[in-house]
Amino acid sequence: MSTVPKCSHCGAALTTTLVDLGEQPLSNSYVKPEDAGKPEPYYPLHTRVCGTCFLVAADDVVPADVHFSADYAYFSSFSTSWLAHAKAYADKMTAELSLGGDDLVMEIASNDGYLLQYFAQAGIPVLGIEPTANTANAAALKGVPSYVAFWGNDLATKLQADGITPSLIASANVLAHVPDINDFVRGVATILQGDAVYTVEFPHLLNMMQLTQFDTIYHEHYSYLSLIAVQNIFEAAGLRVFEVEELPTHGGSLRVYGCLGNASHETRPGVAAVRAREEAAGLNTLEGYAGFTARCEAVRAGLRAFLDQADADGKSVAAYGAAAKGNTLLNYCDIKADRIAYCVDRNPAKQNTLLPGSQVPVLGVDALEANPPDYLLILPWNLKDEISAQMAHLKDTSFVVAIPEVTVWRP
Question: Residue 58 belongs to what H/E stretch?
Answer without folding.
Answer: strand 56-58
